[in-house]
Design a protein that fits this description.
Helix content is 72%, strand content 0%. It is an all-alpha fold. The chain has helices spanning 3-10, 16-33, 40-47, 51-58, 61-81, 91-108, 112-119, 126-149, 159-178, 186-201.
């Protein structure tokens, strides 16, 4: 082995996935602490990488912001909205608990305020937001159709329309609570929202 080969093998191997994740985590922390403000130079410094490397992984500041929003929705979908919750036999109880878990996630995740109240309407993430919101409605429609088929939901309106109204109501209520001062009890809020949703969906039991 010559000196050049030995020097090459002694260098730590690069891990692009780990580097990308580190940049993303730095961006999430800065967005949370900075009330939605972000610059690529700040992210690069916080992640311990060059600014050029940050651009290499995300293309632009808009690309990085879009990745942050994608990550947010990935987490909420995996942990709550797309979870099958197979242990439940009663549809109403399952979805009541899902609403409570969704609200708990939104109220406790440090990025919720930034994503929903700061970034959602910006050109940088509008496309991501619209696509992921439609995905939530699609899944919600499937879920509501199941509830209708099982007799838990007595109203017969289109499941997509009902899903849009349900998700919109939950998000609107959460945004309203986040804009107010003081602590919010996720379970109490979930109970109030469920009473509202139950009446609108004509649930067989609340």
């Amino acid at each position: 082995m010559n000196a050049k080969q030995a020097k090459s093998e002694s260098r730590p191997r690069r891990n692009p996935a780990a580097t990308r994740a580190r940049i993303l985590e730095a961006a999430k922390a800065l967005l949370t602490d900075g009330d939605g403000n972000l610059e690529m130079s700040w992210v690069a410094k916080a992640a311990g990488v060059s600014q050029g490397l940050a651009y290499h992984h995300f293309g632009s500041k808009d690309g990085l912001l879009g990745a942050v929003v994608e990550d947010f929705y990935d987490r909420v979908e995996t942990s709550v909205l797309m979870a099958r919750l197979e242990d439940y036999e009663d549809w109403s109880q399952r979805e009541r608990d899902r609403v409570a878990s969704y609200l708990t996630f939104l109220l406790e995740d440090p990025l919720t305020r930034t994503v929903i109240m700061r970034l959602a309407g910006t050109p940088a993430v509008a496309g991501v937001e619209a696509r992921r919101w439609q995905r939530l409605i699609d899944e919600g429609a499937r879920n509501i159709a199941e509830g209708q088929a099982r007799g838990a939901i007595r109203v017969r309106q289109d499941s997509y329309l009902l899903a849009a109204m349900v998700l919109g109501a939950v998000r609107s209520a959460t945004t309203s609570e986040l804009s107010r001062e003081g602590e919010v009890d996720p379970q109490s809020l979930a109970d109030e929202i469920w009473q509202f949703l139950g009446a609108g969906l004509g649930l067989a039991q609340l």
